[in-house]
């Protein structure tokens, strides 16, 4: 199983940004906002080398690291589809394990944006390069996390990150323009949440390997790519101690190549939508439980927050939101409400 996963992760360079849920669960009602969506740093010219140094070397100094880098995705689009409107499009999956691990014990849904994307893009017809990421508040609002401690800890961790980004990009005197993208509304249904109940296995590791294999093959069969994998229990030397109540906890990064090309590239595309890439789908099993819990942001978040209205792309969003939920249902999972799952105390324990 590990060999299969290694091959999949090393060969599939695309991922799609945040996936999922069924249209039947969406409503026309929405929460009206004019809030900050993302921070962007704009520089003139090609600054890819500086960006790569920042993400691969300097982020470590403030506690962040890259998990699954995907450089110059636009080159892959050009080879696959024969054209691109982009000069550069790269996704860097970023995580701060020291900050995140303790928060998973309070509300594991925070893994829905762990890792998150540090985006860089430049169109062929413009002189400026754009670097940005979603702000922590909107991530928390999309997930539905209200716990004040979790919100404060998660938000505070981004301060040294943004200070470093701004300082690093302007070190050689380069002019950096810092701006904030805003949004007006979030959809009512912002997350998918599923649960998979299983019989007590003789060996939990064998069960996890078999489940992951079935999951990955099910998505690959529907033309999705497994573009990243992060095991929280292996994230740090003391991860198992911090997450002592979990048997397993990981996230997948998922991508649908045709969707990503349609959304980020081609005429009138939205490369800024790469803010939502990679799509982190988290999964975990608590000790003493026979339930695997799954969660992920819906794609409808993209079209709402970015104001995407053209019919072709919106139809694609709806199609994949439906399809993701359908795949999970076909795997035997049951849809659940979007609440902190640790507050749902009724679980079926393993027999002793």
Summarize the structure in words.
This protein is of the alpha+beta class. Helix content is 35%, strand content 28%. The chain has 12 helices and 12 strands. The strands form 2 sheets. It has a 6-stranded antiparallel sheet, with helices on both faces. A 6-stranded antiparallel sheet has the order 8-9-10-11-7-12. A hairpin with a 4-residue loop joins strand 10 and strand 11.
In short:
The protein is α+β, with helices and mostly antiparallel strands.
What would the keywords be for this entry?
35% helix; 12 strands; 28% strand; disordered N terminus; alpha+beta; TATA-Binding Protein; 352 residues; 6-stranded antiparallel sheet
**Count of structural domains:** 1
Rough shape? globular
CATH class: Alpha Beta
Going across the major beta sheet, what is the strand order?
2-3-4-5-1-6
CATH homology superfamily name: TT1751-like domain
CATH topology: TATA-Binding Protein
Write the layout of secondary structure elements.
Layout: H1 2-11, E1 30-44, H2 48-56, E2 65-70, H3 73-81, E3 86-95, H4 97-104, E4 116-123, E5 128-134, H5 136-143, H6 148-156, H7 158-169, E6 177-187, E7 191-197, H8 204-221, E8 224-231, H9 239-242, E9 246-256, H10 257-264, E10 279-286, E11 291-297, H11 300-306, H12 311-330, E12 334-335
Antiparallel strand pairs: 1-5, 1-6, 2-3, 3-4, 4-5, 7-11, 7-12, 8-9, 9-10, 10-11
């Amino acid at each position: 199983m590990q060999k299969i996963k290694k091959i999949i992760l090393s060969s599939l360079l695309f991922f799609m940004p945040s996936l999922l849920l069924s249209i039947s669960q969406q409503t026309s009602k929405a929460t009206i906002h004019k809030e900050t969506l993302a921070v962007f740093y704009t520089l003139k010219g090609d600054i890819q080398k500086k960006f790569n140094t920042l993400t691969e070397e300097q982020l470590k100094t403030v506690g962040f690291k890259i998990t699954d880098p995907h450089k110059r995705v636009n080159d892959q689009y050009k080879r696959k589809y024969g054209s691109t409107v982009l000069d550069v499009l790269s996704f860097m999956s970023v995580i701060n394990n020291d900050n995140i691990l303790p928060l998973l014990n309070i509300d594991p849904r925070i893994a829905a944006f762990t890792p998150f994307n540090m985006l860089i893009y430049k169109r062929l017809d413009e002189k400026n390069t754009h670097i940005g990421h979603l702000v922590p508040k909107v991530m928390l609002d999309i997930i539905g996390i209200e716990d004040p401690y979790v919100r404060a800890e998660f938000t505070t961790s981004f301060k040294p990150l943004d200070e470093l980004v701004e300082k690093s990009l302007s070190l050689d005197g380069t002019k950096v323009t810092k701006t904030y993208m805003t949004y007006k509304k979030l959809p009512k249904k912002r997350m998918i949440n599923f649960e998979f109940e299983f019989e007590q296995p003789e060996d939990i590791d064998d069960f996890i390997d078999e489940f992951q294999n079935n999951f990955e093959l099910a998505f690959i069969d529907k033309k999705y790519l497994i573009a990243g994998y992060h095991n929280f229990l292996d994230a740090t030397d003391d991860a198992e101690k911090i997450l002592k109540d979990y048997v397993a906890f990981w996230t997948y990064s998922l991508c649908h190549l045709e969707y990503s090309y349609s959304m980020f590239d081609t005429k009138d595309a939205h490369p800024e939508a790469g803010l939502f890439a990679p799509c982190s789908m988290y999964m975990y099993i608590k000790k003493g439980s026979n339930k695997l819990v799954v969660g992920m942001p819906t794609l409808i978040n993209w079209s709402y927050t970015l104001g995407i209205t053209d019919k072709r792309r919106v139809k694609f969003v709806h199609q994949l939101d439906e399809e993701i939920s359908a795949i999970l249902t076909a795997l035997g999972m049951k849809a659940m409400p979007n609440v902190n799952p640790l507050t749902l105390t009724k679980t079926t324990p393993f027999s002793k």
